[in-house]
Amino acid sequence: MPYKILKKQQLGTSGTLFEMVLDTPLIAKKAFAGNFVLLRIDEKGERFPLTIADYDSEEGTITIVFQVVGKSTRHLSILEEGDEIADVVGPLGNQIEIKKHQNPIIIIGGGVGIAPCYPQAKELKNAGNSIYSILGARNSDLIFWRDKFQKISNKLIITTDDGSEGIKGFVTNPLRELLNEEPISLVIAIGPLVMMKNVTLTTNGKDDLPFVETVVSLNTIMVDGTGMCGGCRFPTKDGEFHFACVEGPDVNGHLVDFDNLLNRSIRYCEQEKVSMHRYESQCRSIIDLNEKSKKTS
Asked: What is the pTM of this model?
């Protein structure tokens, strides 16, 4: 069953960040914050995970946000409204725990990780929690959904590496300040592995800062999304192994061996570059053929 793209929007001006609304009534009916889907663009495409960034059970839609980093996301980015995706499987993964906490919750989104933070912040806010949102990226152009977060956040802090918006520096800078100001019940961090690692190092109870329970998302290490392939298996600091797709994707960040995951994340960089080069070469060949066809017709 193909799934139609109802809406497509470029976020910012970089040309690498996109938002799509998909017609997925059965998935939308069962979706919760923390869930993800597996996409396969066509019968020859690879399967890759994207966290559900928003959902509307009445309209029967889910929203995804993605950044172009390789062949599959490049292919997805050239699809337009009305086009169809061959397979969308979900909702997969576990719903986050929704309850009222005694103290505020800090939710940290890094880069494209801002998107999956939104449904978590919204559902936790609806449960009566105070939400402090920190959105971070390399520059202002990669910060998105400011208005959405403003509506559901008691505090909204923006950081950029280059200082083009908000606080110059990393998300851990305002995190430290908030931890020093008042008790915090929970920290949720979604974004690049190195960002999530540094957040957990900030909340681990050292450097004169309080220990705070911290949840991170490991959806980026998945392959089949069902626990069968073992691609999402991750080691903890105590030597145990867990499966992100069936036990997560949101897991206790203080247990994760991030150094192991960071080493794994670069394992197939060369193969990914080759795949991207072949795909772009094929696209250029198709464009050239079309241009020749126009000239001869």
From this structure: 0.87
Task: Determine how many CB atoms are found less than 10 A away from the CB of residue 288.
Answer: 10
Q: In this structure, what DSSP letter does residue 95 have?
A: P
CB 75 within 8 A of CB 44: no
- pLDDT tens per residue, range 15-40: 899 999 999 999 999 999 999 999 99
- What percent helix, strand, coil does the chain show, rounded to 5? 35, 30, 35
Residues 137 and 14 in one domain: no
Residue 56 has φ and ψ, to the nearest 5°, of -135, 105
The pLDDT-based confidence of 258 (bands split at 50, 70, 90) is confident
Total of domains in the chain: 2
Q: What Rg value do the Cα atoms of the chain yield, rounded?
A: 20
Q: Which of residues 68, 92, 116 is at a domain's end?
A: 92
Virtual torsion, Cα 75, 248, 119, 193, nearest 10 deg:
-60
- Please check whether residue 156 lies inside any domain of the structure: yes
> Among residues 198, 239, 247, 182, which one has the least CA distance to residue 218?
247
Query: Hey, what amino acid is at 107?
Result: I
